[in-house]
């Protein structure tokens, strides 16, 4: 049973009991409004509850005018929908259309208009949506452990991918099904959505660390996909391929590190100097293969720059640790 279901049950029960204790007519309506008000995050809850409350007030006013002049006929409800729904959408109260309809249809069912009826509907709105907001703000499930687990899984998958890339550079006939790439993509997307929910639950001093992390991995995954595309063009074993493979071996270790060590970047710069000192290709085939390997190095450099931008430098971490010690 999800936490949202439990919160919805609690908010519904509290709303019904409160409305009944205060002697408000149709206390079950307060429970229904509470069900509509419970949401997945605190910020979203605050926005949707506000939208539903003001949409219901605006809808009530329009319905009172229509029912007063046109009476309580079924076709009047169609007129209400044709008029109210576009107005509520333009007023940016789209999330409150269903809630306002529940309130308006209840007034229509009573076939009576008075200030007391209007006040009753407002009271039910305050109680139902109020308890939904209260329950949302009191508790939201913690996602820190899930985010850490996703991070660990993503980094392990990246490490496997780089190992497979190194193996392919050493042996162009190496077979790999690429399932780790698909799994990494799924984990990154799941992490991005989870981090977004966590951020929306932080009303004050929001921490964007996790959002930045999964954004970084998303960017890097795009570079990895392009590197794999380049790697598919290397159909022959070459001496330069072995040197490139050493880069990915090192990267498979660096990706598991929480900080940016810079070891792969240093090796990459050495490899670039090595490429510059090499003699020119003796055939078109060699030229194409070496060109592909050079492109692979440039893509790898882009990948590393993304990590360098978002990861904490190793020297800074060592300084922090010495201060803590």
TrEMBL record:
Pfam families: ArAE_1 (PF06081), ArAE_1_C (PF11728). The keyword Phosphoprotein does not apply. Residues 144-306 form the Putative aromatic acid exporter C-terminal domain. Its main location: membrane. It comes from the Bacteria. It is a multi-pass membrane protein. Keywords: Cell membrane, Membrane, Transmembrane, Transmembrane helix. InterPro entries: ArAE_1 (IPR010343), ArAE_1_C (IPR021062), ArAE_1_C_sf (IPR038323), UPF0421 (IPR052984). It is found in: Cell membrane. The chain crosses the membrane at residues 53-85, 124-141. This is Uncharacterized membrane protein YgaE (UPF0421/DUF939 family).
């Amino acid at each position: 049973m999800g936490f949202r279901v439990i919160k919805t049950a609690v908010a519904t029960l509290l709303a019904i009991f409160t409305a009944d204790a205060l002697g408000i007519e149709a206390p079950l309506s307060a429970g229904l409004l509470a069900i509509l008000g419970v949401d997945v995050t605190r910020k979203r809850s605050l926005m949707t509850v506000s939208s539903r409350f003001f949409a219901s007030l605006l809808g009530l006013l329009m319905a009172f005018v229509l029912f007063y002049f046109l009476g309580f006929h079924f076709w009047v409800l169609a007129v209400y929908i044709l008029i109210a729904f576009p107005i509520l959408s333009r007023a940016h109260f789209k999330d409150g259309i269903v809630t306002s309809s529940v309130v308006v249809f209840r007034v229509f069912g009573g076939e009576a208009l008075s200030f007391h009826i209007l006040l009753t509907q407002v009271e039910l709105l305050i109680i139902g949506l109020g308890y939904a907001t209260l329950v949302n703000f009191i508790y939201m499930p913690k996602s820190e452990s899930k985010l850490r687990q996703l991070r660990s899984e993503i980094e392990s998958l990246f490490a496997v991918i780089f190992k497979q890339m190194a193996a392919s550079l050493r042996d162009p006939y190496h077979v790999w099904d690429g399932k780790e790439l698909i799994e990494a993509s799924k984990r990154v997307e799941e992490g991005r959505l989870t981090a977004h929910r966590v951020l929306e639950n932080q009303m004050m001093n929001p921490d964007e660390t996790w959002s930045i992390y999964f954004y970084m991995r998303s960017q890097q995954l795009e570079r990895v996909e392009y590197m794999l595309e380049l790697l598919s063009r290397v159909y022959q074993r070459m001496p330069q391929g072995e040197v490139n493979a050493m880069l990915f071996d090192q990267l498979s270790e660096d990706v598991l590190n929480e900080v940016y060590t810079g070891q792969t970047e240093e090796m990459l710069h050495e490899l670039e100097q090595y490429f510059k000192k090499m003699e020119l290709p003796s055939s078109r085939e060699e030229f194409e293969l070496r060109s592909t390997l050079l492109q692979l190095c440039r893509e790898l450099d882009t990948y590393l720059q993304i990590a360098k931008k978002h990861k904490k430098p190793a020297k800074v971490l060592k300084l922090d640790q010495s201060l803590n010690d």
